[in-house]
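Kindly inspect the following:
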Amino acid sequence: MKNFGETIAYLRKQKGMTQNELAEKMHVTDKAVSKWERNLSCPDVNTISKLADILDVSVEELIQSKNNSQENIGSLINLILKAVALAMGIALIILNVLNQVDVKSSIIMLSIGLVCVAFYLFRNENQK
């Protein structure tokens, strides 16, 4: 799915408009439109309905694309939590095999891994 900025760019191009033309219709600068399309900023809440009208889509379609990028962030967070937990486990095993880790460090690494697993499970349980 497209994120918010990609959706704006796609719809603008479908209408055969340049960033400057969209900016003129929205009464903003072409730099503002460029920032929207690169997800560096978002249109003001009060102008989203006007943007939807100009692009011939519903406000819901624009907002839905914005929610998809938030879902991508959630997926990235889940991936990071799993990666950290796995990395802690692998590091702990390797350091133990090489006799390069003390008990205190082992407990800390194990705790970090378990906390990441717990956060991951908690996030996914709340999403159901």
About this structure: The mean pLDDT is 87.
